[in-house]
Design a protein that fits this description.
heterodimer; A: alpha+beta; 2 domains; five-stranded mixed sheet; four-stranded antiparallel sheet; 6 helices; 32% helix; 33% strand; B: Alpha-Beta Plaits; Rossmann fold; 3 domains; five-stranded parallel sheet; 11 helices; 25% strand
Chain lengths: 193, 312
């Protein structure tokens, strides 16, 4: 957990805390989420029972453009895009179809997209935004914390806003003073929710 | 003649020599796996003849190793089939006991997770009771294990080994009613068991299973079975040709006190009951042929000498 500035797991059972620190680390590492988390505090009390995870995210400002995933090769009457990274290929195709029409965009094989007679320069194509990694981040984090939390804790309340998140889960109905608990856990990291 | 469980590993070339030898010596091949150019035989062989088998299989590069779990069927009870428990640790443990000869089945509970909401239904209970031993894989918290074990052990009659996050002493203290075996420090984890210390833990689980099963073997030996399940397996294979058509990896699963026959109960149970073993004694005379709760299989439970007055 080198990339995370603050990472603590709090639990009345010290052995359990140790295991959950390992589980949290493994899951976040597996899901490639450690690099987006700046601070993280996890609190588990199996007696109540309750699981709380609060944290601060690192700001993500980068967007993915066509130029990031493809090399553009302009030719007479057409432009060949050689794809180097497939992750955003589907969304790129969708955006190109919308903009230029399906008859001008062709994908002859997995790593090649050809644009025919498009009225824009190669430079402009390179700048088209095709993805925003921060959009799916909240979903990914919720998925990860569902794996970290004990499986029986199925009643959940999640909040993700302004780079801060809280994830509360329990086996029983969540108590009304959950916000205060979340606030106190944020305070331990020197933050406010 | 004492039969001991061993595993033979060797090349496919001339491996039938080894099979013939084992059968001639009075042993039984329980499982045979052919993996590309390699053959793995799980078998029972007479203790005094192990050296002979080693010697004969040396020119064909065969290896004979002890496999104390051959001929046992183990239920690895996982709290659910969610990603929380699979593939680690449930599959890791189920696979590890397979390597030393056991036939392990994973039993996942419909309402395993949680503390207050946990439960065990009658089907799960019966399926677990059809095995030789059950290995319960619990979580990391003492509070939860203490709370749910009485519920999860309700109606379980087979020996149980409990694995959980807290150390062994704590498990012994909190598990009520007491069970036969405990392994501490193996709770829920989300990484593959490949480091030396994690493999040591798996070895500890295997050692505990072996210890508990040895005790069960001793109990069985006090009142011996009317027929050895491994022998029964060979007989069924000879007399009920339909079993050869079954595509399951182990159409006949040998247990310590019986055998699971993977044929439909309604169609084959009468035939099995009437199957003659020796001198006019039929299987129905010395064993109980019952429907299994696992699919529509047949479970043959061999009766002890004290009930049948016969040992074949």
């Amino acid at each position: 957990m080198l990339a995370v500035e603050y990472f603590e797991v709090e639990c009345p059972e010290p052995v359990g805390a140790e295991y959950y620190k390992q589980i949290t680390n493994d899951v976040l590492l597996d899901q490639n989420l450690l690099k987006v988390i700046e601070k993280l505090h996890v609190y588990i009390d199996p007696k109540i029972p309750i699981f709380v995870a609060v944290g601060i995210l690192k700001p993500i400002t980068t967007v993915v453009r066509v130029g990031d995933i493809a090399n553009i090769n302009p030719q007479e009457g057409k432009m060949t895009l050689v794809i180097t990274e497939e992750t955003y290929l589907a969304s790129m195709l969708r955006i190109l179809w919308e903009r230029f029409g399906k008859d001008r965009v062709e994908q002859p094989d997995r790593f090649t997209v050809v644009l025919y007679n498009v009225p824009v320069a190669a430079k402009e194509i390179e700048e088209i935004v095709i993805g925003n990694p921060s959009e799916s981040l909240n979903k990914d984090l919720i998925y990860a914390f569902r794996q970290v939390a004990p499986e029986g804790f199925r009643l959940r309340s999640e909040r993700f806003e302004k780079g801060k998140f809280s994830f509360v889960a329990s086996e029983d109905t969540l108590a009304e003073n959950i916000d205060e608990l979340v606030k106190s856990k944020f305070a331990l990291m020197g933050e406010t929710p | 003649m004492t039969l001991v469980p061993v595993t033979y590993k060797g090349g496919i070339y001339q491996h039938d020599i080894v099979i013939d030898l084992i059968e001639d010596l009075g042993g039984y091949v329980v499982q045979k796996h052919v993996l590309a150019q390699e053959v793995v035989l799980q078998c029972f062989v007479p203790r005094d003849d192990i050296e002979l088998i080693r010697e004969i299989s040396r020119p064909i590069f065969g290896e004979v190793t002890d496999s104390p779990l051959v001929g046992t069927e183990i239920a690895v009870v996982s709290m659910s089939l969610e990603i929380h428990h699979l593939p680690h640790p449930s599959c890791d443990i189920a696979e590890y006991v397979r390597r030393i000869g056991a036939k392990s089945n994973m039993v996942s509970l419909a309402r395993g997770p949680g503390k207050r909401i946990t439960g065990l239904n009658d089907e799960e209970r019966d399926v677990i009771n059809e095995h030789d031993i059950a290995v319960y894989l619990m979580g990391n918290f003492e509070t939860c294990i203490e709370h749910k074990m009485p519920i999860l052990l309700r109606g379980i009659e087979v020996p149980v080994v409990v694995c959980g996050g807290p150390d062994k002493e704590t498990l012994i203290k909190i598990v009520d009613p007491p069970v036969e075996g405990y392994v501490g420090g193996v709770g829920r984890f989300m990484r593959r068991t490949k480091e030396a210390d994690q493999l040591d833990k798996l070895d500890e689980i295997v050692a505990e299973i072996i210890r508990v099963l040895e005790k069960k073997r001793e109990d069985v030996a006090k009142d011996p079975l009317s027929v050895a399940p491994a022998r029964l397996m060979n007989l069924i294979r000879e007399r009920v040709p339909a079993i050869l058509e079954v595509t399951s990896p182990t159409p006949l699963t040998v247990q310590m006190t019986g055998i699971r026959v993977k044929l439909p109960y309604d169609m084959f149970a009468p035939e099995l009951r009437l199957m003659e073993i020796e001198d006019g004694i039929t299987l129905g005379d010395i064993a109980e042929v019952a429907p299994s709760r696992m699919r529509d299989y047949i479970l043959v439970k061999v009766l002890p000498f004290s009930e049948t007055n016969t040992v074949i």
